[in-house]
């Protein structure tokens, strides 16, 4: 009784896995956006760039520093009046005797004034507020803003690459499963044909070589079926790993558009908003910011400063020092050893590099759009042409089957007709897969991912009717 109960519980746990619902392309895309580690890593780079940009906004704010110090002097600072004129140059022997006696009676310590102790303690608040930096602060903020845009565009590039990868792996599962079904149908058909040929050989209606031909064709089909099953397993594993899912059953069928997208429109969208071009624009803005920053180092820096004493020791010097002070400072660079001129040239070179790379990328994207569009057209033409070929292969197989059953055709002719039909079906599946790959690349490069998802949903709804 207890064993039956455990078996029932295990069956209930296994049931959701065994009956895992197929996932649509749209749902798989949303799941991939949530579980992709690469996209999450790019998202962290965007977060870090946002924090850097926020930090750059504080450059205009004043700085406030708490300073504290302890100093031990070799000896206290003192002022000896006997070393100052007129006492230092006074000759006591030239004075009247009564005055000389008076000065001689005064202790030397009476002429010494201590300014500090030997150990000096001090703490203060120091403030500094830059009011003009030659454009260096605004240039630094512009660089941070461009760096944020660069990371955002890199994240968008990753998102589009993930989409094409998903389409490739998703429909690879669909194609491989269809190939397994097609190959299984071929094996079943050849098995029936072999059994029929075996009976006809036993009845003396066909020669042994006809039966052997049917048997060899069946064995070859079984080997091909095993290979198709292994490929299907690998395609499912690849999709599961991509989606971080235990199962990879697809539900969105392959489709072909009735009306292809407009090539001029796709090209215009690509060249206007592709993230690679925007990323290079951000690189260009960073180079401009570096140029402005280096030029700003040639200009003076004006700042406000202040100091407020929080604690000081009890000494004459401390009493003489004011508790607070404020002022305006200016710093003018005359000769610098940081290689400002070389850095300006390097920044200008980076700017030109970004512009040249952008021009080359524009050409490459335009070529990519043209290639993807023509590959999609070629695949569509192949799909439509194979429709007629498939009808011919089906009719040829039907006639060869009838002829073989009546003894008017050989087993080779019957098997050849079966293989031709299987080859046509395989070619058409491959053409549909290439079509969807080209269409996905075209939509990804132009930023129209939602259009692809929308058409896949329409096809799914049409097949559900």
TrEMBL record:
Protein's UniProt keywords contain Membrane: yes
Main location (coarse class): membrane
Signal sequence range: 1-20
Gene3D superfamilies for the chain: Outer membrane efflux proteins (OEP) (1.20.1600.10)
A GO MF term: efflux transmembrane transporter activity
Keywords: Cell outer membrane, Membrane, Signal, Transmembrane, Transmembrane beta strand, Transport
Localization of this protein: Cell outer membrane
Record bears the keyword Transport: yes
InterPro entries: OMP_efflux, TolC-like
Pfam families per UniProt: OEP
Cellular component, GO, one term: efflux pump complex
PANTHER family, A to Z: ABC-TYPE EFFLUX SYSTEM SECRETIN COMPONENT (PTHR30026:SF5), OUTER MEMBRANE PROTEIN TOLC (PTHR30026)
Family listed: Belongs to the outer membrane factor (OMF) (TC 1.B.17) family.
Protein name as catalogued: Transporter
Lineage: Bacteria, Pseudomonadati, Pseudomonadota, Gammaproteobacteria, Alteromonadales
């Amino acid at each position: 009784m207890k064993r039956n109960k455990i078996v029932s519980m295990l069956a209930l746990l296994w049931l959701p896995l065994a009956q895992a619902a197929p996932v649509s392309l749209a749902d798989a895309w949303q799941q991939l956006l949530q579980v992709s580690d690469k996209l999450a890593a790019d998202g962290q780079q965007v977060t870090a760039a946002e924090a850097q940009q926020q930090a750059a906004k504080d450059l205009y704010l004043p700085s406030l520093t708490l300073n504290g110090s302890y100093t031990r002097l070799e000896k206290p600072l003192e002022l000896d009046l006997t070393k100052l004129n007129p006492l230092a140059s006074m000759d006591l022997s030239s004075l009247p005797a009564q005055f000389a006696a008076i000065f001689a009676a005064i202790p030397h310590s009476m002429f010494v004034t201590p300014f500090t102790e030997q150990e000096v303690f001090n703490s203060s608040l120091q403030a500094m507020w830059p009011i003009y930096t030659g454009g260096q602060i605004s240039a630094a903020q512009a660089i941070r803003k461009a760096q944020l845009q660069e990371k955002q565009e890199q994240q968008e590039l990753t998102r589009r690459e993930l989409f094409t990868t998903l389409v490739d792996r998703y429909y690879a599962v669909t194609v491989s499963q269809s190939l397994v079904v097609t190959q299984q149908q071929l094996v079943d058909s050849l098995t029936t044909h072999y059994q029929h040929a075996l009976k006809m050989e036993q009845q003396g209606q066909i020669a042994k070589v006809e039966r052997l031909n049917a048997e060899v064709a069946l064995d070859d089909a079984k080997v091909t079926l095993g290979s198709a099953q292994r490929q299907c397993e690998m395609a499912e594993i690849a999709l599961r790993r991509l989606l971080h899912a235990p199962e990879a059953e697809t539900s969105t069928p392959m489709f072909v558009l009735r009306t292809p997208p407009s090539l001029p429109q796709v090209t215009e969208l690509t060249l206007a908003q592709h993230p690679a071009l925007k990323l290079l624009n951000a690189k260009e803005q960073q180079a401009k910011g570096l140029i402005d920053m280096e030029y700003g180092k040639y200009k003076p820096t004006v700042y406000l400063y202040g100091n407020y004493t929080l604690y000081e020791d009890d000494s004459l010097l401390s009493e003489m020092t004011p508790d607070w002070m404020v002022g305006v400072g200016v710093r003018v660079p005359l000769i610098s050893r940081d290689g400002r001129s070389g850095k300006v040239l390097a920044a200008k070179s980076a700017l030109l590099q970004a512009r040249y790379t952008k021009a080359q990328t524009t050409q490459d994207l335009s070529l990519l759009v043209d290639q993807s569009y023509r590959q999609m057209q070629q695949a569509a033409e192949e799909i439509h042409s194979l429709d007629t070929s498939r009808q011919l292969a089906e009719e040829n197989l039907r006639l060869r089957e009838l002829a073989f059953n009546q003894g008017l055709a050989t087993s080779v002719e019957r098997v050849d007709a079966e293989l031709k039909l299987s080859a046509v079906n395989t070619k058409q599946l491959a053409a549909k897969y290439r079509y969807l790959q080209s269409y996905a690349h075209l939509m990804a490069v132009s930023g129209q991912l939602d259009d692809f998802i929308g058409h896949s949903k329409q096809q799914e709804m049409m097949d559900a009717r």
